Amino acid sequence: EIDGIHVIPGLSTYADIVLKDYHKYKGIQYLLKHLQMDSYIAFGDSLNDVEMLTHAAIGVAMGNAHEDVKAIADYVTTKVSEDGILQALTSLHFL
Questions:
Q1: End-to-end distance of the chain based on CA atoms, in angstroms?
Q2: What are residue 58's phi and psi, to 5 degrees?
Q3: Within 13 Å of residue 36, how many CA atoms lie on the same side as its CB?
Q4: Which domains does the chain have, with CATH numbers?
Q5: What is the SS3 assignment for 95?
Q6: pLDDT in tens for each of the 95 residues of the chain?
Q7: Kind and range of the H or E element at 15?
Q8: Which end of the chain has fewer CB atoms < 10 Å from its terminal CB, N or C?
Q9: How many CA atoms, within 13 angstroms, populate the side-chain half-sphere of residue 78?
Q10: What is the secondary structure of 17-85 as a DSSP string?
Q11: In what order do the strands lie in the sheet with 58-61?
Q12: CA 52 to CA 27: how far, in whole Å?
């Protein structure tokens, strides 16, 4: 452990190393404010996506996602390699 550092394990042999309290949602917050938007749809598969999915209007877990990601998602789609994003957008009536 290193003070101020957060390690988020990935799906296989990698991990994301970020400053404590920083995550994908921090960047999305900044972008939403800049674009004067209130909500977004997010797609994710790894533990580094949890904050982003939790704050999304609709959080979509990919079919190959970590089980903890699937548990917090609003919708679980198929794998990316099986057109999961298209399948979700179609099922959620965005296309």
A1: 45
A2: -135, 120
A3: 0
A4: 5-91 (3.40.50.1000)
A5: coil
A6: 778 888 887 777 777 777 887 888 988 998 999 999 999 999 999 999 999 999 999 999 999 999 999 999 999 999 999 999 999 999 999 98
A7: strand 15-19
A8: N
A9: 9
A10: EEETT--HHHHHHHHHHHHT----EEEE-SGGGHHHHHHSSEEEE-TT--HHHHHH-SEE---GGGTHH
A11: 41-44, 58-61, 75-76
A12: 9
List b or e across 52-85, with b for residues whose CB sees 16 or more CB atoms inside 10 angstroms.
Answer: bbebbebbbbbbbbbeebbeebeebbbeeeeebe
C-beta of residue 89 within 8 angstroms of C-beta of residue 72: no
Q: How far is CA 43 from CA 3, 76, 85, in A?
A: 30, 9, 8
